[in-house]
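Why Dipeptidyl aminopeptidase/acylaminoacyl peptidase? Reviewers of the renewal asked for a concrete example.
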Amino acid sequence: MTGLSAELVVDGRDPQTPALAPNRRLLCYVLAPVSRTGDHLDTELWLVDTDGVVASHRATGDTATESRPRWSADSETLFFLSDRADRGLPQLHGLNLAAAMMTTLTSWRAGVIDHLPLTDPNVVALLAEDEPTEQDARRARDRDDAIVVGEREPRARLRLLDLRTGRVTTPNVFGDRHVVELRQRPDGGPLAVLTGASADNDYGPRTGQLHLFDPTTGIAENLGPVGADARSLAWWPGEDGWHLAYIALTPPVLQAGTAVFDLAVDSRVLRNRTAGLPMCPTKLCQTDAAPLVVFADGLNTTLARLNPTDLTTLSHHPGRLDNLTATPTGEDIAVLTGTRYQPANVHIGPPAGPLRRITNTRPELDGIALGTQQPLAYRAADGLDLDGLLVLPVGRTASEGPFPLVTIVHGGPYDRYADRCQLFWYPSAQWLAAAGYAVLLPNPRGGQGHGHQFAASVAGQVGQQEWTDILTGIDLLIAEGIADPDRLGIAGWSHGGFMSAWAVGQTDRFRAALVGAGVIDWGMLAATGENGQFEAALGGSTGWSGIGPHPHDAVSPISFASHIRTPVLILHGAEDTNVPLGQAVYLHRALRHYDVEHEFVIYPREGHSIRERNHQLDVLRRTRAWFDRWLRR
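Here is what the prediction returned.
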């Protein structure tokens, strides 16, 4: 067996967004590198014969960012976005498979954001911002570019492309609202259109409205407001007429607890179809009949069908099912899924299973030794059922412990660890297991996979019971002789970074911590982060909630900085807008003030996720070196 290197982790290519042709004979997917080496992420479109008769091959030969493959209704044309002509400015392209001819279909000067081929073979719906005007160009030349908030803010608008003439028209509908998503009724009827008042992540997701738009008549109808962060539209026919289903956050909690909402279009009756379920919907997939629903179900995934009166479970799958696509009949699906020891690949089959793998995009990992991964089930201090994963050091068994243990907390918090291969560019279990560490991946309350109440329980109470849930998992592994209580580390990115910073302010049990893009002050994040109101729901208040102290002060790691004695590695992207760099600076200055051993690393040009190859390599190597320094003593 070959050893695992940082280069093996970041130099791979992963499949994304599979698109299954309506006739099920071909499938297209995007092949994307894990890391970026230049100014642009060069991706590729690949075609797969689903029967395996013809080997996988590239659909185009361009050096470009290619994305969003979608098929025409007759399966003869593959539409996709590419910036081959002007990097950073995607345009719609069409690939006619019979003629082996690719055509550039748009030259929209603002670029195309998304597209939807309609049942009318001559029309494609587009999402695109307004093209720049001569006045805009003049302002840019003269640097008369003062930003007045609320003025000239970009909006994605619905456009219609006539494939016969190449003309793009913009229907005068939805006012100045930002268009988020489109879905056409399966019989060729109107489009369901999801809009927000703004493209701003803090404001827009809370202002969603659902509309109907007839592309033939140009008439639009407003169906009313939808829940926060609504997405994943799907039509289905019922005895009482057409229904529209979508996924949204369950009110009144802004931060977690998604549900499937079902709107009867004619009567306007809205129902929550997943209330009380002990799992969480993540994706709807439209078919000609009832939509398919993907559920995060503990460490695994359940696939179900949304019937008129109930949800019918179709299959259970280990780990995750991502990017579900289906033929119009719903008889065949394609998804991204993997195993504990194999990264995700494209799989196809019937919704009831079994699924068959048709790609192998990371063959270089086939001979790599990985640590044994096993699911954990245990109970919190208050009796709540919890789960997680344990990854043992490579080549070792549990009976050979105790081992140094690093606990890696997931982000979100509305996310989860699923029973899949845990090898990524960020601090991940298999990367540390290759260096001799046992790794705990806990799923504390507040996460996904156990229903609405489980997810919503941390709103305004972050760092409380979710923290004791994590400690319970650590204590379990110590009691079982797997973890060495004198060699404990903790790490995390985003909300996981918050939990790592929170942990070292609450206890001295950890000998080292890693805080990646972590939340240090919830009031500051609500004021400056791109998802401010969602963060305010987690922290419990904002700085403008009157004279303090505020509830968020009691759950912010910065309030406990004077208690920190644990060495801390801080990693942060310089251009992070989700959790701005100021959060890391705040922690750094506090640790410097209290003379706490720490290292502060800023990655230029990076956002909330680290994308450049050399930076990803640095994250991996620096993470391992940091824990080696403190846990190997």
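The chain is about 15% helix and 35% strand. This is the kind of structural detail the renewal will allow us to pursue systematically.
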